[in-house]
């Protein structure tokens, strides 16, 4: 699996950075006036959408203002933006370098410095200079992570951190990629905007990619971050994130050798964005070869071959790898050998080009770092002088601190009241959860006394009739059922396979007690069957409804009973339908323990809804066109 990073919209990024720059201001009145003039001019640029007209005005402002480095740096940034929009890329790059070099790095202008680093990274990336772009994005992200960048809009920081994290992941710097992704999640923690959700999904996918190990999906961290990304995506309707989301999940499952899941998300990624058909079919070719589905692989190879003109050097190497593997799988060793020779040749050519390109970029970066070090030495002297000036402002600071302390005390009182209210509410929800769990465990630990008595009586009758084999079979089913019931009683969730095995043991035992009284069938769709032992549901959720059908639905019927259990997945929600042909819900003969079991299951579904899983639901109705009852459960997975 292979895909290019950095699919986030450039226009959104630029808009956020501009907003960030406009929000930055200084303490002195001349600076405020100049900054307001500059921002007003740029607002006119955005409204008129004619950046060419603003270039002479910005050049004039830069010429007139050579003292305030913060304002000057901002003016250079705006000028670079206008030049880029006017398709003067080289001039834009040179002006952006000036914006970066003239600004002394300190606490007061960290936001502008980070923006300058980000802008340089964006321009380098536009030129496909990825080493240099990674360096500048990383520098901007370091400023945020170190706490020097205090923004009013966390989304702006999130965009910068995302680009830095993605580029470092692309260059196999997983330590930095994970560091910046975690910082992004921290900044967006309380932001509920759609863009923040978009960034949160990207951060969780980056963390998942960084936590893959030799066992692939056995790593719990991968499942944790995939689940978080999935939960966030359910609340998001932004079409542009679907491709990144699905292709990242496909890559994670592919590297974890979960080929069915990788195929599923690769197909969804292609539906979300059909513009890159070459890579879509290339990835499908790799999956089908690994699954040894050679006929489908042949179709995918033909589609890839039609679109070779769309590939770049990296994608073409991936295609050759898949082509070699496909030839080996077919036993065509001659074609595999020729493809391997072409692969070696192309790879060597690419490495030479990359090494040459990397050398040039690193040389340029070395000069840039040298300049940065010189600027850092000058900044130390500036900071020393600034420290002397700050001493004269001490009394003013004391007054401001006193006012701030008073405000902080009022704020703390307000937050304390709010905290106590939240604690009370959390305790109420926690107590309700404990109550439901205890009631459920109590229900699971109780076996119907009449049922156990009848089972023992049945065993006794078989022994007296000297039916040894039937007795042993009966005892085996009964012991397995009791052991599974006791085990499930201590678990909150259980995998679907274990739950179905338990129900089958229970039904077989009931059939031995009541020969010929009823039959049953379990029907699973393909997706459920493929993920049978991975899907988890609340333990002992289905048994009360099965028991109700047997003991009460079939009690007074003159015909043979039938139970049909259907399980299917739609939009990551497991739908379970339990149908019988019994007497339906009109009967009043409903014993207390069964009604309580149904009530507790209903309360468990309601509790899942309070946890934010609004798709969880339960409905029970009599069938309309036939006798019997139909129970429908929906459980997010």
From TrEMBL:
Gene3D superfamilies (alphabetical): Histidine kinase-like ATPase, C-terminal domain, Tetratricopeptide repeat domain
GO function term, MF aspect, one: phosphorelay sensor kinase activity
Coiled coil, from the record: none
GO CC field: membrane
Keywords per UniProt: Kinase, Membrane, Transferase, Transmembrane, Transmembrane helix
Alphabetized PROSITE patterns for the sequence: PROKAR_LIPOPROTEIN (PS51257)
Protein name stated in the entry: Histidine kinase
Domain Signal transduction histidine kinase internal region residue range list: 439-517
SUPFAM superfamilies per UniProt: ATPase domain of HSP90 chaperone/DNA topoisomerase II/histidine kinase, TPR-like
Organism: Pedobacter steynii
UniProt cross-references to Pfam families, sorted A to Z: His_kinase
Transmembrane parts of this sequence: 394-415
């Amino acid at each position: 699996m292979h895909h290019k990073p950095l699919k986030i919209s450039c226009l959104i990024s630029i808009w956020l950075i501009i907003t960030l720059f406009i929000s930055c201001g200084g303490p002195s009145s001349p600076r405020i006036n100049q900054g307001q003039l500059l921002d007003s001019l740029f607002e006119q640029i955005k409204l008129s959408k004619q950046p060419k007209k603003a270039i002479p005005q910005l050049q004039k402002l830069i010429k007139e203002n050579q003292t305030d480095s913060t304002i000057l740096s901002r003016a250079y940034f705006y000028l670079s933006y206008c030049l880029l929009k006017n398709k003067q890329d080289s001039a834009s790059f040179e002006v952006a370098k000036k914006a970066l070099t003239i600004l002394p790095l300190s606490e007061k202008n960290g936001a502008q410095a980070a923006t300058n680093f980000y802008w340089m990274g964006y321009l380098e990336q536009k030129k496909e200079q990825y080493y240099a772009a990674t360096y500048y994005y990383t520098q901007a992200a370091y400023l945020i992570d170190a706490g020097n960048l205090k923004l009013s809009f966390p989304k702006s920081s999130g965009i910068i951190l995302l680009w830095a994290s993605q580029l470092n992941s692309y260059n196999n710097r997983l330590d930095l990629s994970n560091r910046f992704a975690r910082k992004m999640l921290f900044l967006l923690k309380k932001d509920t905007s759609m863009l923040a959700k978009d960034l949160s999904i990207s951060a969780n996918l980056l963390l998942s990619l960084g936590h893959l190990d030799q066992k692939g999906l056995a790593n719990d961290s991968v499942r944790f971050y995939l689940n978080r990304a999935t939960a966030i995506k359910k609340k998001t309707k932004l079409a542009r994130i679907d491709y990144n989301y699905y292709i990242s999940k496909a890559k994670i499952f592919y590297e974890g050798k979960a080929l069915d899941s990788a195929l599923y998300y690769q197909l969804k990624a292609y539906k979300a964005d059909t513009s890159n058909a070459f890579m879509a079919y290339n990835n499908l070719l790799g999956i089908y070869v690994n699954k040894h589905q050679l006929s489908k692989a042949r179709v995918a190879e033909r589609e890839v071959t039609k679109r070779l003109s769309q590939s770049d050097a990296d994608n073409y190497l991936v295609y050759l790898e898949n082509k070699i593997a496909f030839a080996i799988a077919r036993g065509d060793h001659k074609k595999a050998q020729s493809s391997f020779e072409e692969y070696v040749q192309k790879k060597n050519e690419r490495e030479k080009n990359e090494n040459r390109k990397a050398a040039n970029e690193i040389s340029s970066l070395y000069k840039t770092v040298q300049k940065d070090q010189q600027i850092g030495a000058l900044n130390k002297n500036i900071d020393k002088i600034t420290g002397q000036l700050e001493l004269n402002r001490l009394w003013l600071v004391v007054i401001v601190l006193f006012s701030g302390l008073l405000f902080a005390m009022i704020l703390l009182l307000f937050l304390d009241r709010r905290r106590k209210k939240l604690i009370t509410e959390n305790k109420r929800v926690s107590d309700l959860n404990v109550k439901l769990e205890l009631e459920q465990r109590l229900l699971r630990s109780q076996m119907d006394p009449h049922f156990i008595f009848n089972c023992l009586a049945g065993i006794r009758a078989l022994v007296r009739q000297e039916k040894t084999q039937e007795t042993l079979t009966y005892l085996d089913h009964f012991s397995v059922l009791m052991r599974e019931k006791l085990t499930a009683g201590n678990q909150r969730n259980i995998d679907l396979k274990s739950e179905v095995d338990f129900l089958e043991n229970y039904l077989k035992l009931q059939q031995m007690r009541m020969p010929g009284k009823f039959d049953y069938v379990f029907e699973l769709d393909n997706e459920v069957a493929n993920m049978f032992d991975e899907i988890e549901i609340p333990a002992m959720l289905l048994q009360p409804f099965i028991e109700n059908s047997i003991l009460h639905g079939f009690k007074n019927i003159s015909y043979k009973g039938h139970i049909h259990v259907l399980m299917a997945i739609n939009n990551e929600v497991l739908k379970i339908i339990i149908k019988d042909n019994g007497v339906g819900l009109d009967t009043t003969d409903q014993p207390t323990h069964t009604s309580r079991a149904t009530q507790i299951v209903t309360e468990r579904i309601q509790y899942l809804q309070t946890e934010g899983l609004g798709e969880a639901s339960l409905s029970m109705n009599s069938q309309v066109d036939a006798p019997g009852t139909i129970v429908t459960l929906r459980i997010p997975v």
